[in-house]
Design goal:
The chain has 372 residues and is an alpha/beta fold. Helices cover 33% and strands 21% of the residues. The structure holds nicotinamide-adenine-dinucleotide.
Amino acid sequence: MPNTPSRREFLHLIAVGSAAVVGARFLRPGAFGQTPAQGAPRKLGVALLGLGSYSTGELAPALQLTRRCRLAGVVTGSPGKAEKWARRYNLPKKNLYDYGNLEQIADNPEIDIVYVVTPPALHPEFAIRAAKAGKHVISEKPMARSVADCDAMIAACRDARVKLSVGYRLHFDPYHQELMRLAGPAGMGPFTKMSGDFGFKMWGKQWRAEKRLAGGGPMMDLGIYVVHAACLAAGGVAPVAVTAQEAPKKRPDFFKDVEETMHWTMEFPGGAVCRADSSYVHNANRFRADGPHGWIEFRDNAFAYRDIECRTSRGPLEFDPPVNQQALQMDDFADCIVSGRASPVPGELGCRDIRILSAIYEAAATGQRVVV
Ligand code: NAD
């Protein structure tokens, strides 16, 4: 009886009153992605490019849990970091690259995927170079600073016959999968009224406040999550038009060439509307979608790695034990490569979001309603 829920799962199923939990059982760490299967095929090798906080704190630990891929190498601008990572993760010297010799990765059969985890301005260059070296590519979000750059990344991967996906980890999170399910015909949706706010108080100087590297301010870094969730809540469609206002700056000396807070509205086909905010001067992490047949509310940690607080009009929602979103995301990409299946988070989806963000910036700059 492999699909019979345990007592705990059964009780939870009743509490939630939703079929979603049954699906979520297949996403649990123990069920997928975390325990190596007996006689499993070779795990694909991932090289993390850019060893900053996300690679260090989330992706490398997640790669210790993956079932279909593993941390096989690194690409870094710092020889000291390469040595440290080699010691910590037992990486052979031949799998350590710097930004200058990335092309040599073409000759390394142990590395199948290059995961680009640098500031957004550098995603296109590294993604294109990795593709030309014959490696599949994951680009972190936001995919690039412009639609033209996204198009160039997509073209390079297509020409090199490698796969390209974006680090949209939430597609593999059970709460966000439930949002997608509820937005579909078998759920409550599509939803018609959405709202969201994602922000944190930024203090120390970093690339996120530099337009040259980040492409923009909190809209690029955080607002993109609200945009993406709203598209899911609207039934998987992009908005037809946007309006936006940049809030007056409280710290203009710090946020010199990027917005500090953005308010924006998205109008979806069929009339659904999302009103949203993103900011580097207030803390927020919430999302809500309402429709004629019910609602779903991410009260806190809506876009976080863990501890998402969520309920629906049908009752509280709780998936237990927690999943590792990044492990599931990378395992799914490895499976796409091996099976030939298309990624659910391809470059085209990343590009769509950059198109929406560009329209929001244009709307803020012109004060006009901008058709996407
Ligand atoms: P970070 O500043 O901690 O790390 C950036 C890395 O890029 C560093 O190792 C840095 O040395 C390297 N780098 C290479 N060239 C650089 C340059 N010219 N200027 C600055 N750094 C340079 O940043 P991070 O938080 O790790 O973010 C990296 C990427 O990951 C960004 O695209 C970010 O949006 C994304 N990210 C995604 C998530 C997620 O949940 N999917 C979470 C955090 C960050």
